[in-house]
Amino acid sequence: MTARTARSLPAGGVLLAVLSAASFGTSGVFGSALIGARWSPAAAVLARITAAAALLTIPALVQLRGRWALLRRGAGRAAAFGLVAVAGCQLCYFNAIARIPVGVALLLEYLGAVLVVVWLWLRHHQRPRRLTLAGVAAAVVGLVLVLDLTGPAGSGRLDPIGVLWAALAAVGLATYFMLSSAQQDQLPPLVMTWAGMWVGAIVIAVTGLAGMLPMHASAGDVGLGGHQVSWVLPIAGLSLIAAALAYTSGISAVRRLGAKLGSFIGMSEVLFTIGFAWLLLGQQPTPTQFLGGAFILAGVTLVRLDEQPASAPGGRAARRALSSPAGHGVSAPREPAEAGAHAAGR
Predict the structure, then answer these.
(1) How many CB atoms lie within 10 A of CB 127?
(2) Residue 222, phi then psi, degrees to nearest 5
(3) 195 neighbors 16 (Cβ within 8 angstroms)
(4) DSSP per position, 304-336
(5) How far is CA 172 from CA 27, 110, 169, 209, in A?
(6) pLDDT tens string 178-237
(7) CB of 188 within 8 A of CB of 252?
(8) Exposed, middle or buried by CB within 10 Å (0-12, 13-18, 19+), for 284?
């Protein structure tokens, strides 16, 4: 591999991470359209991941041709991805917003990026440096400003059960980034997404049939971008863009960037969500939200700057990765051979 190729990988990873965040950001618009047409959130999520899994089946089988051993070796990781990062994260989030304001729930969920930093510190002895800590602080402040928790929706006493559900959603989000960055016996990103989606779809379907989540949908037209369209359009958007593309590009990005940097760039999903809502739903951001966006971008930049010395040949982090036990370099700098293949999903 050439030095030029090695240098291009982080930039490619950043672009994939931004693509994943933007793709995830469309889920708010498509999901709101369905919920406004009397779809329950759980039904919308089930349709989203089931359709995505079905659409990815043939491409996944083509990628697995002659390589079924990869699926056997990675079955446990794929099952955990679908159970915790896809189904678990979304179910916990929906339970949270049933008890606490959406803005508070989102803030708590996106603290999953902070959990990634803590996990890498405790489990892999990757102690965060000053730039990372400053990036964490800036990103959290930015989330608070973007979600406008000081408004009426963010006030009042919080239900502790709702807070607990949101905290569990944060664990699910952190798990998504950690499992996506794993290098051992890695499945191709598309196959990982496909397998995880089927696991998540089965879990949510069983949960719905058991009566734990309301499941109802409507075949009527839905309002989207000021027009009445078939319900098929938002389902297609949720499955193709907000699930298949988002999870696949997200896994690819995290394998190139590592769990820490990937999770912080993933915070930009909030900005894309607000932007799409502005363009398609007429929900104009406030000056406070624009300021919050600047803080989030500053936080991501600080974490990115902190990662750059680690990617330099002979750097301190590179030497630590070489001397650490096998399997402990989850977010250590990757060479192109390690990066393999890669939105996601959560």
Answers:
(1) 11
(2) -125, 155
(3) no
(4) HHHHHHHHSTT-HHHHHHHHSPTT--TTSPPPH
(5) 18, 10, 5, 23
(6) 888 876 657 889 999 999 999 999 999 998 888 888 888 988 888 887 788 999 999 999
(7) no
(8) exposed
